[in-house]
Automatic annotation (TrEMBL), chain A:
This is Proton-conducting transporter membrane subunit. The lineage of its organism: Bacteria, Pseudomonadati, Pseudomonadota, Acidithiobacillia, Acidithiobacillales. It comes from Acidithiobacillus montserratensis.
From TrEMBL, chain B:
This is Hydrogenase. It comes from the Bacteria. InterPro entries: HyfE-like. It comes from Acidithiobacillus marinus. It is found in: Cell membrane. The keyword Membrane applies.
Length: 487, 226
């Protein structure tokens, strides 16, 4: 029997201590290696928790901690993206010499951001889950605005205001859920996911559904589902590239986990179709909005941000279809997207530094100047649009397969068409970046990328390729188990 | 449950206080002087503290006295102090760019209250609580929420956005005190501190906005589109 309480405690204490040390010593070089060391440890711990994850949900830590298979999976994605982003951050932040005196603050914030994300998926109390999500917003807003340029601060401000207002709706939803429970369990009871699911069948439909819609819109704002996505392209494109990867690859999954847990409450109340359809419609809408904006995008990281919106739409559709197949596809997609989107943001960060611009129309002949890392980036772009033989192809196909059997088969067709549109648009942008007109002779990039800049791209690409060619049987069983138990 | 066995005196007291909080949000809606907003917000927070304390008294929840004291201290005193300090530092005395005149915003606010009442009434029918104080609590909760959003939409000054958000949070707090007074007190404590952190974060970002972006009005923030 693994002592999960000890593992989880280590998972929280190690980044906490690291933050204090970084802030106390104020040494930039030390902070970057300490952050790397922390991320390696955290990755190891999340992997250990995932491997040993219990089949049944486990409540521990004075009933405040809940470890479920889905929660362990989301936690693993956090650990993975944090590790990749920490390797990349060393290379990327060294390209910004003007930030050097403040680097220890950057790494402390990055570790703090990771810490808040390691806390949220393990909370057994929806209220405390909400607070943890709120803290992820506060910490990451400062990371988005870290470079202190006008655009960065504008993005950070918008992010904080829009998401806080959205989360306020979610809090209202949680209170209504609790209120519904007081009619059954009496005025005071423990606010836990399990209790809310237990009382759901006895709560009137109107109240249950209103509460669910409020939490869906609230946490949907945090996931970036359209039409509450307005903060997402700004925050993801203006923050430093490693932060963009963490926002996109790790944070969005956690908010989606919250939505799925509230969906499970509605399910056990017997209004499964309504709840799933609501999530599905938001997913389709996100895919649609993302498709339109990707077609006409010029900013490299903005395009990737809209791609995050697209993939959150795919995940929302996957969870919205319901059923074991679509659910397994969505879980697989979570991991694939975390890996692949990190790769894409790292590549975009490299190119932005190399060409000194955010605009894709000014990045020309990428492969001529960066044959290796440019190729990895291009392969990542092929993968992120869901083309074979990469992992995202398998997971998106599985979601589509699961959707045919769901109560909403129409969404399968809409999703397929929009994915093809996005594929075309993405490839068109990359075509222009690889060939396109000859650049001005003196604008050729001279930056030499270090191993820190390219290694994490390989570390992300290889698993995405492997996961596309081989879906481990053990993982399939794990997804089925995750589907059957409390999320 | 508390809402089922309240005496007439307690019911009228709660109704009075809840309506008072609602009226104070209209004061905020009608004025364009930022300091007036902050004072109205402070008064609203004290009203909510009074609701907490009286629920603690009538419903025998001693921990609510602590919540009431903390609400008065943090929401009613410390947060307004922080915001006033921010107003003074930024030297912005009033909202110059409202979309609508005060009279029109008040009519919109009234429409939102009617909408909230209708939603609450429907919920009340579904829960067999038609003549209960719960309907009033829900109405106030939803109204404050919508009025907060309205304030954020109609105004472009960063401080008005913070205040709009605080009104939303006040609405939730007001409703939760009456509807679920037995909710674990720990949660409410943490939410108070969470609010404090978020207002401080806002304060820092607003000052960054002024120094690095040169404006604190959302109309000046037009760089990121598409």
């Amino acid at each position: 029997m693994v002592n999960f309480a000890a593992l989880i405690a280590a998972l929280w204490i190690i980044p906490g201590v690291a933050i204090i040390v970084m802030l106390a010593l104020r040494r930039p070089r030390l902070a970057e290696y300490l952050n790397l060391l922390t991320s390696i440890t955290v990755f190891g711990l999340t992997l250990a928790i995932l491997v040993a994850a219990p089949d049944k949900p486990l409540v521990t830590g004075a009933r405040y901690i809940l470890l479920t298979p889905l929660g362990a999976w989301v936690l693993f994605c956090v650990g993975l993206v944090y590790l990749l982003a920490s390797i990349y951050a060393i290379g990327y932040m060294r390209l910004l010499p003007e930030e050097k005196p403040r680097l220890h603050k950057y790494y402390a914030l990055q570790a703090g951001f990771a810490l808040t994300m390691l806390i949220a998926p393990l909370m057994n109390n929806p209220g405390i889950f909400w607070i943890a999500i709120d803290f992820t917003t506060i910490v990451s807003a400062f990371l988005v605005g870290f470079e202190k340029e006008a655009e960065c601060i504008e993005a950070a401000w918008k992010y904080l205001i829009v998401v806080s207002a959205g989360l306020a709706l979610a809090l209202l939803g949680i209170i209504l859920f609790y209120w519904g429970g007081t009619f059954v369990l009496g005025p005071t009871y423990a606010l836990t996911w399990a209790n809310l699911r237990e009382v759901a069948p006895k709560v009137p439909e109107t109240l249950l559904f209103l509460a669910f819609l409020l939490t869906l819109v609230g946490f949907g704002t945090k996931v970036g589902l359209a039409p509450m996505h307005t903060w997402l392209p700004d925050a993801h494109s203006e923050g430093p590239a490693p932060v963009s990867a963490m926002l996109s690859g790790a944070l969005l999954n956690i908010a989606l986990l919250g939505i799925y847990r509230f969906l499970a409450i509605v399910d056990s109340g017997g209004y499964s179709v309504m709840g799933h359809t609501a999530l599905l419609v938001l997913g389709v809408l996100s895919l649609f909005v993302a498709g339109l904006f990707i077609v006409r995008q010029d900013g490299a990281k903005r395009m990737l941000a809209y791609s995050s919106l697209e993939h959150m739409g795919v995940l929302a559709i996957g969870f919205g279809f319901g059923g074991a197949i679509a659910f397994a596809g969505a879980m697989y997609h979570m991991l694939n997207h975390s890996l692949n989107k990190s790769l894409m943001f790292f590549g975009a960060g490299n190119m932005m530094r190399a060409y000194g611009t955010k605009s894709m129309s000014k990045m020309r002949h990428v492969l001529r100047y960066y044959p290796v890392s440019g190729t990895v980036w291009l392969l990542g772009a092929v993968a992120i649009t869901g083309a074979p033989p990469f992992g995202l192809f398998l997971s998106e196909l599985t979601i589509l397969r699961g959707g045919i059997l769901s109560p909403n088969p129409w969404a399968v067709w809409v999703m397929a068409i929009l994915l093809i549109l996005i594929f075309t648009a993405f490839m068109n942008h990359f075509r222009r970046m690889i060939w396109g007109p000859e650049p001005e002779p003196d604008t050729a990039p001279t930056l030499k990328l270090s191993l820190w800049n390219t290694l994490p791209m390989w570390l992300a690409l290889i698993p995405v390729l492997v996961l596309g060619l081989w879906w481990p049987t053990g993982l399939w069983g794990f997804f089925q188990q995750a589907f059957l138990v409390q999320p | 449950m508390l809402i089922f066995h309240l005496g007439p005196l307690a019911t009228s007291l709660f109704s009075l206080l809840a309506i008072l909080a609602l009226v104070l949000s209209f004061v905020m809606l009608a004025s364009h002087w930022l300091k007036n907003h902050v004072y109205a917000f402070a008064a609203e927070s004290w009203t909510i503290a009074a609701i907490s304390a009286s629920i603690g008294y009538y419903g025998h929840y001693p921990e609510l006295y602590v919540i009431a004291a903390l609400t008065a201290l943090f929401r009613g005193t410390f947060l307004p102090y922080l915001v006033i300090r921010l107003v003074n530092r930024l030297d912005i005395q009033r909202e110059f760019t409202p979309l609508l005149k005060p009279s029109s915003s008040m009519i919109l606010g009234a429409a939102l209250v009617i909408f909230s009442y209708e939603v609450s009434r429907q919920l009340g029918i579904a829960l067999h609580l038609t003549d209960n104080i719960a309907v009033l609590a829900l109405t106030c909760m939803f109204s404050l929420k919508l009025i907060g959003f309205l304030m954020m939409i109609l105004r472009s000054e960063a401080i008005s956005h913070i205040l709009g958000l605080l009104v939303i949070e006040n609405g939730i707090f007001l409703g939760s005190q009456i509807l679920v007074p037995g909710m674990p007190a720990l949660l409410e404590l943490v939410i108070i501190f969470d609010l404090l952190t978020i207002v401080m974060a806002f304060g820092m970002l607003v000052r960054f906005l002024q120094t690095h972006a040169g404006t604190t009005s959302s109309r000046g923030l037009q760089k990121l589109v598409g």
